[in-house]
Amino acid sequence: MSVTRRGALLGGVAVASFASVRVSAEPAVHIAVTKGPGCDCCDAWASHLRANGYSVSATESDDLDNVKKKLGIPDDLRACHTGEIGRYLVEGHVPAVAIGYLLRQKPVGIIGVAVPGMPVGSPGMDVPKGAKQDEYSVILFGPAGRKTWARFKGATRI
Predict the structure, then answer these.
(1) Is a pLDDT exceeding 60 seen at residue 158?
(2) In this structure, what CATH number is given to the domain that contains residue 57?
(3) What's the number of CA atoms in the CB half-sphere (13 Å) around residue 6?
(4) Cα separation of 103 and 141, whole Å?
(5) What pLDDT band is residue 1 in, cutting at 50, 70 and 90?
């Protein structure tokens, strides 16, 4: 059996396309969220995370203050929901890009990232296009102290 030029080309294309198929053995990073019962903005934030490749589970609690206290989230950084990813905490309407930074860079002395309060236009606090959006800081926090990682207006980094 002789190999023709066309056969060799087609075989090469088949091997190249098969090699480009990526089978991921890694599951999506899971974020366990604790939120108040029936909180729509918490559910919308979870949808933002899922749209950005995260796996999310939610548990409702009538005692969020106690949950946050046990986890060590400072009072002035608290918001309406808390996420846990392994050893890291995610407090409030944190954009997925900031969570990705935390997980990739693993800053020393940092246990979490927070967006205090409920800024209008932040992920989960979406508003119609053209509506006024708040500017807010995404804050890294932990035993090493605090620092602003980035500023956002709505879901856009500024």
Answers:
(1) yes
(2) 3.40.30.10
(3) 0
(4) 14
(5) low
Does the residue 83 lie in any domain? yes
Confidence of residue 25 (pLDDT cuts 50, 70, 90): low
In a domain, 13, yes or no: no
User: How many structural domains does the chain have?
Assistant: 1
Tokens of 100: 């990705």
Band of pLDDT at residue 126, cut at 50, 70 and 90: very high
Tokens of 46: 């979870």
Q: Provide mean pLDDT across the span 103-131.
A: 95
Token pair in block for residue 80 = 């309406």
> For the residues of the chain, what is the DSSP string, one character each?
-PPPHHHHHHHHHHHHHHHH-----SPPPEEEEEE-TT-HHHHHHHHHHHHTT-EEEEEE-S-HHHHHHHHT--GGG--SEEEEETTEEEEES--HHHHHHHHHH--TT--EEEE-S--TTSTTS---TTS---EEEEEEEETTEEEEEEEEETTEE-
DSSP string, 16-40: HHHHH-----SPPPEEEEEE-TT-H
